[in-house]
Amino acid sequence: MPAYLKARARLLWLGVALGLLGPLPAAVAADASKTEAADSAAEAATPAAAPTTAPGEAPPTDLDSLRACLGENLPAQSLVQNVRLIASDSAGGRELKARVYGMKLDSETAVMIDVRAPSDMSGSRYLVIAGPERDAMYLYIPALNRTRRVVGSMAGQSLWGTDFSYEDIKLLRGLLNQGVLEVETGHEYEKRPALKVRIDPTEEGAESQYSQVTLLVDQQTCVIVEGRFADEAGLAKTLRVAPEDLIEVDGRWWAQRVQVESHRRNSRSELIVDDFEFDRELRARLFDPRSFQRGS
Question: In the chain, how many domains are there?
């Protein structure tokens, strides 16, 4: 693949990165193929006071109750977000803006990313279809007026030069069903009660750049607020969500801003969600490799 296409293909991982802010639901509206509802301004998401209890009846204390609690933060059908991905290091900063559409299609999770900025990437669109065994990725580049499928493993590569990688996001999304070794109560994050979850990313012979991942989940909101990614050489990167960036939208708790620090590159990155829109009807063509390039 030409170098410039390879660099742009890395942005495909942005769709999966949104899993940091909440995985997509298992249910989809039966009439998802109907015409998309007219655009409407999404309700502004503003920080709310921390709840005194978790979304469920009681704060989670083990893996089963954690699964249930995390599930209550999910939308019923679909999700639309306006996002920014910002990277900064000693050389300066970079920012990408995109509108992201996501929903579940049978046993697959589909995410379509419509890039709005910077200007040299505006109009580019990316489609990620994550299946139970493998992911399919497609990109559309306006200058070429064609869609290409991206092949090959890019798990350890960065998202558009940021400190997020595809594997980081896959590990976070897999919290509920793979590699969980231990769930501990009695921990705190920013003076708030938290569960510690320890994950072995190499379970069952899986390949990984990490030897261990440790997460802290806020017990009051059931949102991941810290991630520590270690390899054989020690701590490689840290993910954090500030308490003031936990927001409640339509009764669901989400992280509006996620910060990642690379201890090897001496750099920082942020994933910011500017607004949320839940459970609107979306056109099926947004997630079809043959038609997603037409956008919304």
Answer: 1
Q: Is residue 149 exposed (0-12), middle (13-18) or buried (19+ Cβ within 10 Å)?
A: exposed
Query: Which of 82, 128, 126 lies closest to 105, judged by CA?
Result: 128
Q: For strand 192-199 and strand 246-249, is the pairing parallel, antiparallel, or unpaired? A: unpaired
In a domain, 180, yes or no: yes
Residue pair 257/270 in contact (Cβ under 8 Å)? The answer is: yes
* Both tokens assigned to 278: 């839940």
Q: How far apart are the first and last CA of the chain?
A: 28
Q: Are 83 and 21 in contact (CB under 8 A)?
A: no
Q: How far apart are CA 129 and CA 135, in angstroms?
A: 6
CA-closest candidate to residue 130, choices 27, 207, 23: 23
Structural domain boundaries enclosing 14: 3-30+52-294
Per-residue buried b or exposed e for 210-244, using 16+ beta carbons within 10 Å of the residue's own CB = bebbbbbbbbbbbbbbbbbbbeeeeebbbbbbeee
Q: For residue 186, is it within any domain? A: yes
Is the Cβ–Cβ distance between 102 and 110 less than 8 Å?
A: yes
CATH of the domain at 138: 2.50.20.10
Is residue 199, in this structure, part of any structural domain at all? yes
Is residue 131 in a domain?
yes
Q: What is the mean pLDDT of each run of 10 residues along the chain (296 residues)?
A: 36 38 34 34 43 62 86 83 87 86 82 87 84 77 86 56 66 59 92 93 75 92 93 94 93 91 90 89 92 83
